[in-house]
Amino acid sequence: MTQLNDAHLPPVSAPAMSTWQPLRQRVFRMLWIATVVSNVGSWMSDVGVNWSMLTLSADPLDIALVQAASSLPMFLFALPSGVMADIVDRRKYLLFSQLWMFIAAAGLAVLSFTGQVTPTVLLAAAFLLSVGSAMSSPPFQAIVPDLVSKAELGPAVALNSLGVNISRAIGPALGGFLLSLAGPWMVFLLNALSVLGVAWVLWRWKPAPSVQRLPPEHFFSAVRAGVRYVHAAPVLRNVLIRTVAFFVFASAGWALLPLVARRELGLGPAGYGIMLACIGLGAIAGAVLLPRLRQRLNADQLMVAASLMFAITMLALAFVRHFWLLNLFEFFTGFAWIAVLSTLNLGAQRSAARWVKARALAVYLTVFFGSMTAGSAIWGQIASHFNTATSLCVATVGMLLASATVLRWKLEKDPNLNLDTSGLIADDAREAIPNERGPVLVSCEYLIDPQSARDFLQAVHELRRVRRRAGAISWAVYEDIDQPGLYIETFLMGSWVEHLRLQERHTMNDHLLQSRVLAFHQGATPPATRYLVAPVC
Length: 537
Fold this sequence. Notes:
Number of helices: 17
Low-confidence stretches: 1-15
């Protein structure tokens, strides 16, 4: 399994915390160890699936479709999964996803043992296993802030990436050895068993109960709220754009690696496993060095440097045919991969408020795996019509050009963000209003000195993002013609309960922006606020 916008986080230049600090938290430590073991099984299974496809089909497109089948479920189901993780019990939902993956992996083991595996079966199995990952990834990433302190979030994200790549170093080599020794069914069976450890830790974990003052959101309204949040969060949008720019082209390195190993180098499963292990070792080295690198380079500089490094390694994959020399380049593939993945993941984590975190991370995963899926299919088609070297060269040029996205879409935009809730309690003074009444039009009246009007309008337009992120359907500001200097901010909520949710979702940075707007108000009393509810017919 391959595993933002408003007040102030610690400055980027603050001393880096130890990479290992989050492991002092007991539940995080147990879940991290169990996940590493599970990911070892997943990488073993990936080797088994890829190598089985190589023995069953000689078409490069079929080989690339394995990567596409593994990535497509994340594109299709990550967002619905993120919504579910925000509106249901995350622990129970995670347990269900582990059960799903156990059944899919065990079923593939049985079919392999009985000799019933075909290319279609392999693609279906890769798809179903990835569906399980799509269900579990958003809630797994969303619970990280529940397991560690805010200061430990960055190291925790890096540790999760490190865990994936420790398993990447162990799993492929072990999987290649077991393929040679016992056959694919053994690696598929061990993958099924590896899931049980994660399920056991989740079963024993008793998270602190959360107080729900308002009824849970409905599924489709929660989807719309998540999409609105992403649209109104500039830093998160930048993360998504940079995700597409990198992974569409980086997918060539993963999709065509099995083809180079088998056809160009003539390797067996053990040799292919060694290549993947070298990538994992590079990723481990990268994760260990990332805290120091972040002290020297900001997120944008680190992304560009890692992208250029990955582009060089794709050129090496296209032309280098010496096994150990190519493995040296693959080591740097892993180094660059972990740097990019950790940087983007941390950017997505920090640009999402707690109430929408699983949905925001699900959108990130949807874009990530959608890019991987589309890219894998594209590079497989090019390799099928021309050759692998041509496909890898085109991808390299594309990645170099895509690195220029840093000039406009910066990850370092508004680096000091604090999306902790402000503690504002929902207004329940109007208890007689049913939750479902709506839509609700909210208006706030500001009396502004005409000489400050331009600065006020600039400040109040920042509130547009605040209202839209928290669920407003529309937003506008007007000036009274008969009373110059009287400005009315209006925004529309879908229902009364959505208005109450907007108040509970108020973050520290929202409070900061609102304070800036209120500073322009010249009235003797606070701005008048009115709530207009659609009449019941």
